[in-house]
Hints:
Elements: E1 7-14, E2 27-28, H1 31-34, E3 42-49, H2 62-79, E4 86-92, E5 97-103, E6 110-116, H3 121-125, E7 154-160, E8 164-171, H4 178-192, E9 239-245, H5 247-260, H6 268-284, E10 291-299, E11 317-326, H7 327-332, H8 335-347, H9 351-363, H10 370-373, E12 379-383, E13 401-404, E14 413-418, E15 426-432, H11 434-441, H12 444-447
Parallel strand pairs: 6-7, 10-12, 12-14
Antiparallel strand pairs: 1-6, 2-5, 3-8, 3-13, 4-5, 7-8, 9-15, 10-11, 14-15
Amino acid sequence: xxxxxxxxxxxxxxxxxxxxxxxxxxxxxxxxxxxxxxxxxxxxxxxxxxxxxxxxxxxxxxxxxxxxxxxxxxxxxxxxxxxxxxxxxxxxxxxxxxxxxxxxxxxxxxxxxxxxxxxxxxxxxxxxxxxxxxxxxxxxxxxxxxxxxxxxxxxxxxxxxxxxxxxxxxxxxxxxxxxxxxxxxxxxxxxxxxxxxxxxxxxxxxxxxxxxxxxxxxxxxxxxxxxxxxxxxxxxxxxxxxxxxxxxxxxxxxxxxxxxxxxxxxxxxxxxxxxxxxxxxxxxxxxxxxxxxxxxxxxxxxxxxxxxxxxxxxxxxxxxxxxxxxxxxxxxxxxxxxxxxxxxxxxxxxxxxxxxxxxxxxxxxxxxxxxxxxxxxxxxxxxxxxxxxxxxxxxxxxxxxxxxxxxxxxxxxxxxxxxxxxxxxxxxxxxxxxxxxxxxxxxxxxxxxxxxxxx
Length: 455
């Protein structure tokens, strides 16, 4: 059977409805942004059901819907104007200078594309493993953030299915982290629904980049050509599966972890992350003395002193090495022990630790390389179930599901989303090699906590 083909119908570029004065200046990037130049775009999207056809109401018209999306996007970009720009590099030899920034003046704007595919929502949601065709629901497939010099920093791809609509959003990871990605998405949805406009939204972004004292806004990179710090990443053959955990299942897991370590401080997410770390390590059948670690994507906004606004727009994250142990020790100890390692690392991630990382970077400026960030024996917990993902509605009601694109996928990557039914439920998108996935699906400790997906 031939795989389904996504057919691109049209594209255009969307500029802010009007230009604010600040957009005429170079928009400089902070250390947390610049380190991302050689990683990939954030690609997340929502699958909606098309409205049912009725006799007494006007039927859904895709062209009217697309026009409404474009108009509301143009209004949203007034508030989030860097997303309509392009990256630019200013370079000189004497004195040596290499500065990457956002140019909001010489850009056609954000990209908006419309595509179709001969699939139903059930074709996307019913298979055990996430279908590969999902990768074609997003722009910027395999693009690095540095490609934002010539590619849009934001693309919205609307893919029309037989009975559904997928709104795929790709944003340059040198401009946003997950918190800012969903902040933008939330405000676009708000404006689409007529609850905000180009003058006023409920959560205006704080666009001023934060720099450590005595540094910025212009930060030189120690390079003369981008080939010196770019390395394209091609992921291995993976299986990707969504695992559902009900609020009841999460509550039991949290209680178990706390009881085993005789504490009440371990959180739900730390308990779940410890479970994933232990069970993936067991599925890999690692040697007893092989060191394995669990990394958590951690938001630095509230950890700085004074803290950054929750609406700070940009990157303010680190991949925290939260737990480390030999495979033997991790599996000989219980869930509570593993969860406590993660809890301690999160609690100790203070203003001092955040500034320590920044000071190291300022002394020796580097760019993350995806293939060197994560080793094949470890686990990385990304995204967050706290982000408002299912609150984004575009006149189609609540989304049926959330899915992601190709970017940042490797064996041992788990992305956490809120469960569709809310209430503290969690959906985990886990990527593993085919053999490791088969072993995880046979792991009793893991599968006993997994819940049936709500219909």
